[in-house]
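Exercise: predict the structure of this protein bound to protoporphyrin IX containing FE.
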Amino acid sequence: MWKDLAAVVVLTIAITHPVQLAAEDAPASQKSLAEQLVDAFNAVFGVHPGLRANHPKGVVLEGTFTPSSSAPSLTKAAHLQKRKAPIPVTVRFSAGSGLPTVPDTNDMPRGMAVKFALPDGTKTDLVVLSFNGFPVANAEEFRDFLLAVAASGPDAPKPTELENFLGGHPAARAFVETPKPPPVSYGTLPYFGINAFKFTNAKGSVTHARYQLQPVAGAKYLSKEQVATMGPEYLTEEIRERVRRGPVKFKLLAQVAEQGDTIDNPTIVWPDTRKKIELGTITITKAVADSEAAEKKLLFVPGALVPGIEPADPMIAARSAAYIVSLSRRAQSQ
Ligand code: HEM
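Solution:
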């Protein structure tokens, strides 16, 4: 049943996002960039059958989205128009690593993925990280970064490939060296869309913007002393407990580009002074009963969009293709 579902999902998205799904054991030179990217994750983190090539450790919850009155000024996207009832959403928070057993106390950016279910059956996704900015400018460089990490184990000759890579990529060095303190909760972290999208409103007016998600509970982090007392599953346990006590809310914002802002390079963070348009509120109300079963059936794709929103940064298409390759491999290895 799940395999049928995965096949339908892969097929549907493959039609809208043409991707070459070649054999896993083809020579690297014949593989698509998406496959090379998934192989590069596997080189760093290993292959974990049935699980995501990146962010395999996660927790699935449910809730609703209520658009704000200012959202239609940015886009005609259906989920961002005034409506009678809130839109159901499925949310997956994830640890920032390709290792399924990574402790929640690790210092990698956390992930949040949101699927909006529109009344006509259409679904659209938002896939964000708890870090503003990306280590590299494009997907080819990301592959090379991952391969450099994979080649730089403790026994690697010095300077390691990673040291060489960081030497030539200051944004990657800054990303690696910036502290990413573990949060109190998945619900007390700001998240960032990182890649820019092109928004078109009903009058045809075009704006480039990047998503931000602000936790209504405020951004709260643990001290070093608190981190030392936390168990490896503390974030998963905490968010389940938190939604039992009451809803966990995020404001969805669009940070608007000004004339001359770079839209096709996610290492270049726009100044915080850029205008932000409030798009609505995500209200998470409950954890799903069987998160493990739910996440296997879920695929969040940054390029799964509705009219009124299009990719502006080419990394979005490259990411989407890699997520589909990862899904097709995890579905086949159940
Ligand atoms: C070229 C750059 C990138 C590549 C190749 C890449 C690749 C991947 C892959 C293969 C997965 C597993 C997908 C699955 O099996 O369902 C994944 C998951 C994820 N990625 Fe990326 N990624 C990239 C950039 C980003 C960026 C910029 C963000 C945030 C803005 C991001 C956030 C996430 C999150 C949150 C997940 C977990 C999604 C879930 O819960 O299903 N990634 N990524």
